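[step 3/7] fold_predict: job queued, chain A
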Amino acid sequence: MQDTLTIAGKAYGSRLLVGTGKYRDFAQTAEALDASGAEIVTVAIRRVNLGQNANEPNLLDALPKGRYTLLPNSAGCYTAEDAVRTLRLARELLDDHRLVKLEVLGDPTSLFPHVTETLKAAETLVKEGFDVMVYTSDDPIVARQLEDIGCCAIMPLASLIGSGMGILNPWNLQLILDQSRVPVLVDAGVGTASDAAIALELGCDGVLMNTAIAAAQDPVRMAHAMRLGVEAGRHAFLAGRMPKKLYHGAPSSPTAGVIAAAK
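[step 4/7] structure written:
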């Protein structure tokens, strides 16, 4: 697509960001990433080996060198301190890599974000020079606070992580979109391609997903479907949908010059 997504000063052609967990093996991971067309892939530092465990297979060995921008994340962290420590480790493992996804959870069952710890961690990371893409609730006030701190992208959930429930509250999402000056990407809860399309139709700059692809019966085909859904949604947003007309129909063909019925 010619209109690009710019994050932390770098332009990307794809608006689909994908995760690297839950696949059958690294080979399937690589195949699904390729089918998705994604240019940014996120990796959970606490769950995926990027070289910190010398005796385990390294994900980076399975990916084409230089093809993807890696987005290390702090999945599995429940405090600001743990999240900051994890992303500092990512910076060391990836040769001073600064683009990260901040994720601080508040509950192990719902995996809902802990917003106060997220705000605390974001402030520390931004001061240390990280480019922070931040997973958060769909609270527009919290989103504004994170942007004011200096986060380079706001990533509100559509619904709970891994739930596949889609966008449950488009109204809050619209409030965040209307006020934000940085990219807004839906993160968490997408279940199928139509969910991704809706997010882009609403005006979101992109969408990040993992389980929706990895847990599909055919992950590679679903990755391709998500790619098409994101592209379709973006085109629909740019095209500008027709206005909704409650309780009022309108003929789809011209009414001028209609042949009169025989008397």
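[step 5/7] annotate
Residues 219-239 form the longest helix (21 residues).
The chain is about 35% helix and 15% strand.
exit 0
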